[in-house]
Design goal:
The C terminus is likely disordered. The strands form 2 sheets. Strands 3-2-1-14-4-11-12-13-10-15 form a 10-stranded mixed sheet. Strands 5, 6, 7, 8 and 9 form a 5-stranded antiparallel sheet that branches. Helices cover about 20% and strands about 30% of the residues.
């Protein structure tokens, strides 16, 4: 019987995306590489647990859930997190950033200083700039100030990010222009916490890292995986990757696979020209986006 593996999620390293597996195995993903796997027949997707601990009841979770946690484990996972504001005494320094995902899609956020740009890569930020750094609560207050003063959110749905990837401006200068303007407006605001050290605008562009612009870009995605199912399979050449999303060239066109849908399943290696045999849905496009290259 073929060995089954449990995916632990997609991580971004300095040299690109890496699929991680329960037990420590890592699969480095490079554009042009074929990605193919199958879900075990009769398989059931189970909760991945919380904060490194297994789910005590191995609860089943829906195939369309990107969190892959049961209600109780999701509550426990969030109970001790920066996002839930339950770590006010965290001594680590934090950074505040502006991230751009496409025309009109900008968010403000914070990330631990020690993580560098990893958080931005994980979110699929096409470009970003730091705004400042300091203690956690100073960073959080700055984030709230900028949300209110600039009218930018702290979350953007992945569906919106995917919808605009086919309409990104060609030049880095065009892609960073929107956050450059917002950075200037943010710097001119009063009321920044004294403990927050401002940082000058330095636009960092990930479009080339993701493979979604430039001469080697692939065709636009036409669909996305809705969920994995027992006995299902997918295979295709990796043509781009952004955040948790893998863009795979399949016999049904380029399909976006959100790797968060892989967690909780027992997965098997699939060789050869594995067909795309999982539920798909049409990829929504931003208004005015035409079919064609990324």
């Amino acid at each position: 019987m073929a060995q089954a593996w449990k995916c632990a999620g997609l991580r971004w390293a300095a040299d690109g995306p890496v699929l991680t597996w329960v037990g420590g195995r890592r699969s480095v993903l490079a554009r042009g590489k074929r990605v193919a796997f199958a879900v075990a027949e009769g398989g059931v997707r189970t909760c991945v647990g919380a904060r490194g601990n297994a789910c005590p009841v191995r609860a089943g979770v829906p195939g369309r859930s990107t969190g892959a946690r049961c209600e109780e484990c999701a509550r426990l996972d969030r109970a001790h997190s920066v996002a839930a504001d339950t770590m006010a005494d965290d001594p680590r320094p934090y950074r505040v950033y502006l991230a751009w995902f496409g025309p009109g899609l900008v968010k403000v956020g914070i990330t631990a200083y020690e993580r560098g740009s990893a958080r931005l890569l994980e979110q699929g930020a096409v470009c970003f700039s730091w705004l400042g750094h300091g203690p956690l609560m100073a960073a959080r207050r700055t984030e709230e100030l900028l949300r209110a003063a600039l009218g930018v959110p702290d979350r953007i749905p992945y569906a919106h990010k995917r919808a605009v990837r086919a309409a990104l401006p060609e030049s880095e200068a065009e892609r960073t222009a929107e956050i450059a303007g917002l950075h200037a407006r943010a710097a001119a605001l009063g009321g920044w916490p004294e403990a927050l050290t401002p940082e000058p605008f330095r636009g960092v562009d990930h479009a080339g890292v993701f493979g979604i612009t430039g001469p080697e870009r692939g065709p636009a995605a036409v669909a996305e995986v809705a969920e994995l199912v027992a006995g299902g399979a997918i295979g295709g050449e990796l043509v781009a990757a952004a955040g948790p999303d893998l863009h795979l060239a399949t016999e049904r066109g380029v399909v976006v696979l959100d790797t968060r849908l892989m967690t909780g399943w027992e997965l098997l290696a699939a060789g050869g020209e594995q067909p795309c045999a999982v539920p798909l849905r049409e990829l929504k496009r931003a208004a005015g986006v035409q079919d064609g290259l990324f």
